[in-house]
Amino acid sequence: MADMSVAERKTVLAGFHGGSAKVRLTPALPATRVSLRAGADAVAGLSKTLGLKLPTKPKTSASAKGRTAFWIGPDEWFLIDEKGDTLMADCAASGVVHSATDISHRNTAIIVSGPAAADTLNAACPLDLSLAAFPVGAVTRTVFGKIEIILYRVEEETFRVECWRSFAEYAFGMLAEGAEDASL
Questions:
Q1: pTM
Q2: H helix intervals, the chain
């Protein structure tokens, strides 16, 4: 009988932990991720089948039942499901014209939390991360050092940094350096 062993994918940041006295860096739990493109006429149908209202304004997000949707552009969203549900099947069931691509294995995320989280990110990110300019729930695609990230403010002192798996160790290293500097 043939060996039925199945390869198990480790998270790219397995075993990574870091930070400083004022910042904690933690790899996010595995999640399903979908890059969604659709016209304005498809938003209502997709929102209904996804179980959350897709945001339609810049820098906004929406969350419900373990799912989060980030507005990335006028016809683009980044979807995350932390419960592992099938976002692709829900998008397909919407009955509206759209393009959905599962990017779960392309991306990973790092949670940056603590009183110096914004300062840590500003070590390599040029955005104004004050609460007035980047409130809780705000999200944007931006640069962090030499890489592109999607930055989401989860709570006042907590951010989610989404990046490509191939850049995850670079992002974690830059965040670790920023955490040390922010704690001085």
A1: 0.91
A2: 43-50, 87-92, 117-121, 168-182
Q: How far is it, in rounded angstroms, from Cα 183 to Cα 20?
A: 6
Q: What Cα–Cα distance (Å) separates residue 176 from each residue in 23, 78, 116, 168?
A: 9, 26, 12, 12
91 and 38 in contact (C-beta within 8 Å)? Answer: no
pLDDT tens digits along 151-176 = 999 999 999 999 999 999 999 999 99
Q: Which residues of the chain have pLDDT under 50?
A: none
| Cβ 91 vs Cβ 37: under 8 Å | no
Bridge partners of 98, per DSSP, are 38
Closest residue by Cα to residue 116 from 171, 181, 163, 27: 181
Cα dihedral value 58, 71, 29, 128, nearest 10: -10
Calculate the CA 65 to chain-centre distance. 16
